[in-house]
């Protein structure tokens, strides 16, 4: 199958230096005017919205955490990002550790760094045999030139190896604000075509499927995108990507690198107050607004929250503990 550029990879977009400068300057207009404080509600709806959240780590960041049970609730799904150059043995070892602590683990399978079907089968067998893994996030990956036979998550699904191995859950990636790296004209035809294909695949696989998205900073574009999926007949549950608390400079760096779209203006407004450049940017506003929308519209397609801990795993987990009520209570409460 030749399906063109992978439309649901969460791989960073690598802008040119002039473009990078343009984006950075647009979010750092050191003006004196301070942004208005958010009046978004925080309460029971937010606690309910955060229930069952997931979080993303890497082997090297996992090493900084002594005991995940002390910072994450029981049953938290932990995604393990597979960055190019990370040995599969490190990925499997991290999965084994987390699985042994009782967490459901979802490793990334980036198509473009997997040489061939034999390699894919070996990875699946190692994850299952050594760590008891039965779920995966399938995506294109963060390299422009494939290392072997695969260039898209759809090709990984078409091998049938995940169904053959009995994987119970398969997630794919989504872009609520689109991606010019995928649809250079600013549209979303490639993205939507791929999601329609995956919706159809959902009908013929025994695995449960969901869309885990790129992070955003504003609720309205997310709401419109999820409603658009519903209108297009794409019923896969959405696990909305949210950037965890981090310094504004850190947030801007990742937002630019990952090609975040119009909701970048949220950071622009925040940057107008130079005194806040060293203060953590927290996801309270977007989560509270999405939670309120979900409470008012129970059938709304977001099923869970997925955190990208840009400011650190412990910092992200602490924020959820402080803001999520019972939804954020660690497995081993101090």
Summarize the structure in words.
The chain is α/β, with parallel strands linked by helices and 334 residues long. The protein has one domain: TIM Barrel (Alpha-Beta Barrel). 38% of the residues lie in helices and 15% in strands. It has 13 helices and ten strands. The protein has helices at residues 17-26, 44-50, 59-62, 88-100, 117-131, 153-158, 161-164, 189-202, 219-231, 248-257, 265-271, 284-296, 313-323, and strands at 54-57, 77-80, 105-110, 135-139, 169-174, 208-216, 238-243, 246-247, 280-281, 302-308. The chain has an eight-stranded parallel beta barrel with strand order 1-2-3-4-5-6-7-10, surrounded by four helices. It has a two-stranded antiparallel ribbon with strand order 8-9. α8 (189-202) links the parallel β5 (169-174) and β6 (208-216). It is globular. Residues 1-9, 11-15 and 23-42 have low confidence and may be disordered.
